[in-house]
Design brief:
Elements: H1 13-21, H2 24-34, H3 40-47, H4 51-63, E1 67-72, E2 80-85, H5 87-90, H6 93-106, E3 130-131, E4 137-138
Length: about 160
């Protein structure tokens, strides 16, 4: 039987990312981790997720290097584990922000957004955007996903 650890990695960055974090529960766990949640019981209570599913998703996120598992022990209790974002896990904040922004625009809640992205220094609202090397936001219509010449995705060049 082939699994994620033994089969070849896809060439596409999006496909590889979805291999690591591609299900609803993983993204919701990451949302809570970015809000400072680290303990199994807190994830379970906040998300209403079955313990076996949570165990599986946390293990997958640890295996992918997105979360780090740390042991802790409260006085008189058995050893337990907490889960902390790694640098690659923290880098997913922009992905979560983009998903939130898309959801607010295309599948909005009737009462409006429940969370707003803000700059901690200025308090200003933030939008997720493509930004060039000079820090200028680039309109989505001006962005293309261009295959690297000679790379595995270059097969699309013939279709243009």
């Amino acid at each position: 039987m082939t699994n994620r650890k033994t089969r070849a990695q896809p060439n596409c960055s999006i496909a590889r990312t979805l291999e690591a974090v591609g299900d609803r529960w993983s993204f919701l766990i990451l949302r809570e981790a970015h809000n400072g949640i680290t303990r199994f019981g807190d994830f379970a209570a906040l998300l209403g997720i079955a313990p076996n599913v949570l165990t599986s998703r946390l293990a997958s996120l640890v295996d992918a290097g997105i979360l780090e598992k740390r042991s802790y022990q409260e006085e008189g209790a058995r050893t337990r584990y907490s889960y902390h974002l790694t640098p690659s896990g923290r880098d997913l904040k922009v992905v979560l922000g983009a998903l939130q922004q898309w959801g607010d625009a295309h599948v909005p809640r009737p009462g409006g957004p429940t969370v707003i992205r803000r700059d901690t220094a200025t308090g200003e609202d933030l939008a997720v955007a493509f930004v060039d090397a000079d820090g200028r936001a680039v309109d989505d219509d001006e962005v293309v996903f261009e295959p690297v010449p000679g790379g595995p995705a270059d097969r699309y060049a013939a279709w243009r």
